[in-house]
Amino acid sequence: MFSFFKKKDAPASPEAPPSLATPPSAPPPAAPAASPPWRDRLKAGLARTRAALTTPLGELFSRSRIDDALLEDLETTLLTADCGVDATHWLLDELKAAVKKNKLDSPAQLREVLAERMASLLAPLEKTLDVSPHKPFIIMIAGVNGAGKTTSIGKLAKYFQSQGKSVLLAAGDTFRAAAREQLKTWGERNNVSVIAQESGDPAAVVFDAINAARARGIDIVLADTAGRLPTQLHLMEEIAKVRRVIQKVDATGPHEVLLVLDANIGQNAVQQTKAFDQSIQVTGLVLTKLDGTAKGGVLAAIARQCPKPVRFIGVGEGIDDLQPFRAHEFVDALLSGTEKPENK
To answer: What is the mean pLDDT for each group of 10 consecutive residues in the chain (344 residues)?
Structure first.
């Protein structure tokens, strides 16, 4: 624990006589432990998600042959994994077509087709966020309370800093005082300026932040907004007002509207995406808490019902545990361990 109080100087000791022996040199400081590669952290973070799938899928793919019973059980497993009816039926149709066309008879082959088709389904959601066209690049962030919105903003600030970008935070969630204080803490942790007011109009906070970013030559503005339930239409209008104010300051903004979703809410993530999109025109998603009890399949549902680029996914509490979404990497981590074990 750090202390901001200096210790009193110790009384000076008599000068020691010079020693003829060479004093032993201090051991070099231990090197900091290297953070595991993102691929390993992704697999570890998806452990619970994968466990919900691995047992049934591992059992299915270890059967002796492909038959109607296997396909029916696979359909049930995908539905319970929050893939949604639309995505599940699409995947099953693709699998059945592959079985017929390629005359597949091994469940292990079926697993490979499932991985391929799922990656194909999620691939359109993989779009890197390019912040170079505008300066400052204004990112408006929305989401319901508890989704991890404010924490995600802190992690995004760290991510963009690692890309060599300067960042400024706008504490636009004036509805919840704790959010403002939390954002200030993240700002101090990342050495990033935070524009905030003790109370007042969130749109005014964002307005001041954009002007401050222009004056200081900041690359990116991350604008927090108050957490709202999509059913609270009068409160959703307040967020829409923030968007309109941004457009008054910069006719090209906001340049990105990110919706933060808690992966544990399953199919509700689809409904939230549709509702927020209607109010503030969502351009990208941040999926958090995939290291919890989330089934992970909700991304398949989003891909079929309301496709939006998944800019980032989070699989832990660490500041580096929010990374750009990569479809093949995600599917590999999700289905890792469902292979049929080799006979020995």
So the answer is: 39 43 48 67 70 67 87 89 92 95 90 94 95 96 89 92 94 74 82 82 90 97 82 76 93 96 88 91 93 75 95 85 91 71 42
- Residues 226 and 81: their CA atoms lie apart, in Å, by 30
Taking Cα atoms as reference points, which of 77, 78, 97 lies closest to residue 86? 78
110 in Cβ contact with 61 (< 8 Å) = yes
Give the C-alpha separation, 287 to 18, whole Å.
Answer: 64
Q: Is 71 helix (H, G, I), strand (E, B) or coil?
A: helix
End-to-end CA distance of the chain: 53
Closest CA to 297 of 105, 112, 86: 86
Distance CA 260, CA 279 (A): 15
The count of other CB atoms within 10 Å of the CB of residue 282 is: 22
* Tally of CB atoms within 10 A around 290: 27
Tokens 């829409």 belong to residue: 240
Model-level pTM greater than 0.70? yes
Burial of 299 (0-12, 13-18, 19+ CB in 10 A): buried
The three-state secondary structure class of 285 is strand
137-142 vs 256-262, strand pairing mode: parallel
